[in-house]
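Lab notes, practical 5.
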Amino acid sequence: MDYFDPAQAGFRQLLELYEFVDRHIHRNPVVVDADDLLDYPNEILKSYCEAVGLEYEENMTSWEPGPVPEWDAWAGWHEDALKSSGFKARVKKNRPRACAAFDVEDLPPEVGAVVEECMPYYEALFRQLLELYEFVDRHIHRNPIVVDADDLLDYPNEILKSYCEAVGLEYEENMTSWEPGPVPEWDACTCVGWQEDVLKSSGFKARVKKASRPLPPEVAAVAEECMPYYEALSEKKILPKKH
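Output from the prediction step:
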C-alpha cells in the first residue's frame, strides 16, 4: 500500500452514523463486521436478512463483474469491487482478537496512530454485534441455556442435573466422570495443548475454594470491561439442582 489517508479510516463517523440511526430512525440498527462477512459471507448474509425481514437467496453473494453507473462519481474507489464477482469465504481467517495479539507497533507510525485513535469507536460498534447468546436466542432457539463455569466447578453434579432437566435428558451419575486418555475427534484441533488438562482428567469434582487475591491492573481492567456482559449472562444461568 503506497497511499494512506487517516481521515478515511472512518470508524468515528461509522459510530456517529450508528448513533444517529439508533436515535432518530430505528432502534438497534444491524451492525455487520467486515471480518465476519469476509470469513462467513453466506452465514452472515442469512443472519442479516433474517434480522431485517428480507428473504435470503443463494445468489445474493455473487454477481457479474462490470461497471455500476451510480458509482461513476467516485471513480477509483470501487475498482476492486467492480472487478469482483461475489463474496467467497477467505481461507486465512483474519482474527487477531481471537488468536495472536495484534501489535500496533508492527504498523507504520501513521497507521498505528490511526488504529489507536479509532479503537474506541471500533470497540463501541463491536459491542453492538449479536453475541453468541443473542444470536442463538434470536435465530436458533429461544432462551438458550447458560452454564456458569464457576457453578459447574463448585457444584458439578447439581449443575449437570439442572442442565439435563432443562434440555430433557435423563441424568446419570456417571456423567461427571470418565476415563482419562486421548479423544480422536480433537486431534484435528490446531490449538495444540488446549485440552491437555482435560485429557489427563477423569471427571468433575467440586473444587475447594481458595482465598481470592488482588488482580494485576491489566487483568482488573479486562474484568471491569467484561463485567456488564458477564452480569447480563449471569441473570439467565441455570442454578444447581438440589437433592
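Observations recorded by the TA: Confidence is low (pLDDT under 50) at residues 94-101. The two ends are 65 Å apart (CA to CA).
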